Amino acid sequence: MRILVVEDEPKMARLLQRGLSERGNTVEVAPTGEVASEIATAGDFDVVLLDVALPGIDGFEVCRRLRAARVWVPVLMVTARSAVEDRIRGLDTGADDYLVKPFSLEELLARIRALARRGPVVRPTVLTVGDLTMDPATRRVWRGEREVPLSAKEFSLLETFMRRPDQVLTRDQLLEHAWDMAYEPRSNVIDVYVRYLREKIDRPFGRRTLETVRGIGYRLRDGRR
To answer: What range(s) does the OmpR/PhoB-type domain occupy (predicted)?
Structure first.
């Protein structure tokens, strides 16, 4: 396999290059995000091993740029960050898998083999429902050509809807996917934030895309229908 290792720490880069090369792989190393973007866009790699903490642009931005350039090589993000939010952000920018340091070489090789078997998978990182567009990587939302500013919680709730268009979602489901489960199921926080979203993505545009399904929950529909 031909593997691009994106790692700015020289000792770690050498260890990875040696370990992967000894297993029969061809390994190229990029020390910065800018260099990685150029090499990965121009080259034909089976897997990109991408560190998050890089000088200049970070691994999240590198992955976002690759996907924006329609480069679908499998990306395995490698980082010391273990927070769930970081893993979600990495996957939302287009990464295929996420490995937290420290890790064993055997686990790394197993992850790489799994990604290589899967091969490049063309999948948009931008979500679209009707003329409503969301970019999870940059956390921006548009209705048509007009950008709609949202708070972090509004964005999380809308993302849950946009990943399941036309599905009826209960309040419990919305709490589970978009909220801190410390909230009581009987809390009206979902109803409040659905109202906030309607004031931003529907009413200013004369739309009614966020529907109430009486006795169950809510559904996001294509507002052009």
So the answer is: 124-222
